[in-house]
Amino acid sequence: MHIPTALASLLPLCLLVDGIQLPAPSGPYNVGFTQHIFNHSTPDDPTPGPGTFYLTSIYYPTRASPAPNSSVPYFDPTSAAIWGEVFNILPADLQSLETTLQWQAPLLSERADVDKLKTWPTLVFGPGGGMNAGYFTSLLSELASQGYTVLALDHPGEAPYLALPYGNPGVVGWDIYMPYSDALVVEIYEFRRADLLHLLGPDGFPALVETYGAYFNAAAYGAFGHSIGGAAATGAMDRDSSIGAGFNIDGGLFGDSVNASMRGRPYFMTMNPNHFAQDADSWPLFAESYYNESKTAPGWLDWTTVEGSAHLAFSDVSLWVELLPQIPNTTAQVDLGNVTGSRMDALLKTYAGAFWEFVRGGEYDTALLEGEVKEWPEVVFNAKVRSNGTQRH
C-alpha cells in the first residue's frame, strides 16, 4: 500500500484550518450515528482485506441536541494522510472537517415521530470504488435529518484504509493509485452486491433491529450508491423485491446489473457528461430495457446529466477542495468539473430528497422530477419513462 511521506515540513507554508464544518443538514431532526460489523464471508475475496465481514454505518434521526465538541470525526489520521496527498491538502486540514453526527445518540421515542417514520423505507448506500462510505456524509446526514434511516456499507480491503469501531484495528486495502481492470471491476461489483443482499437478509439488518428493538423499517428498502455502489444497488434490486426503488449516482452498470429487471420500481439515474464517452452502452441499454418493460407494467424512470460535473464531484470530495486550502503552488490531481462543491452538494440533496420523498408516498415534486427547471440549469434530462412506456426521450 502507498502511504504518503510526512508533510510536516510544509506546515509553515499553509495555516491550518480550525474546525471547518460540512454543510449542515436542513431537516427537522438532528442526526445520530453508530456502526456495526456484520460477519459475512466473501468467497475468493480479491482485496487485501480479511473477506470475513463488512462494516455498516447507520445514520438516523434523533431529537437529541448536539453537545459542544462531541461530533463524530470526519477523518481518521491515516486516511487523511492518504487522501491529502491526492488532493494536495494537508492531513491536518482534512482532519479539521467537522460533522454534526452524534455518536449513538438516543433513538426517536415520541409516538408521533415513531408512528410517522417507522413505515418509511430504510435507505441502503454504497460508496464509489475504493472510497469510504464516510466520504458521502453530507448527503447521508441530510437524508437522516429528513427522517430516513440510512445504512452505508464499507467492504474492508477495498479502500486504501478503513478505520473500524470499538477498538478494532483498521484495515489496510488496495493502493489508492491502483489501476482497475475490467475483470476486477466486475469482482468488486459482485462482492458489493453480495454484502448488500446479506445486509437485507435475515442475519443482517433485520436481526440487528430485532436485537435492539428499534423502530427502523427492516422490511422495505431503497437502494442507492455512487459509481460501482450504484451498480451494486441495481443488481441487488434485481434479486430482492424488498428494495422498492433505486437511485444511481454516476455509476456505470457492470456485470449482470446491465440486464437487471426493475419490474416497474422507480429508478433515478444521474451522471456526469463524460459517461457518454466512457460508458456509451450500459446506461442507454438499461433505459431501453426499462422502457420495454414499462409497456406492459408500471414504470417510473428519470435519467439526467449534470452538465459541468465530474465523477468525484458527486461526493464530499468537491467540498474538501472548496472548503480547505491546498498546499501552495499545487493543484488537485483529480478532475472535479467546474461546478462548485457547495453547488453540487445542494443539487444532489435536492434531487435525491425529491426522489425519496416521492418513493415513500410523500409530495411529488413535479418541477424537479418531470424536466429541466431554471433553478438547476445544469440538470439535463436524457430520458423519462412512465407507466405504459410514455414520455420517452
TrEMBL record:
Residues 1-19 form the signal peptide. GO terms for biological process: lipid catabolic process. Coiled coil: none annotated. Keywords: Hydrolase, Lipid degradation, Lipid metabolism, Signal. Residues 123-328 form the AB hydrolase-1 domain. InterPro entries: AB_hydrolase_1, AB_hydrolase_fold. SUPFAM superfamilies: alpha/beta-Hydrolases (SSF53474). It is an enzyme of class 3 (hydrolase). One of its GO terms (molecular function) is 1-alkyl-2-acetylglycerophosphocholine esterase activity. This is 1-alkyl-2-acetylglycerophosphocholine esterase. It comes from Paraphaeosphaeria minitans. It comes from the Eukaryota. Its EC number is 3.1.1.47. Pfam families: Abhydrolase_6 (PF12697).
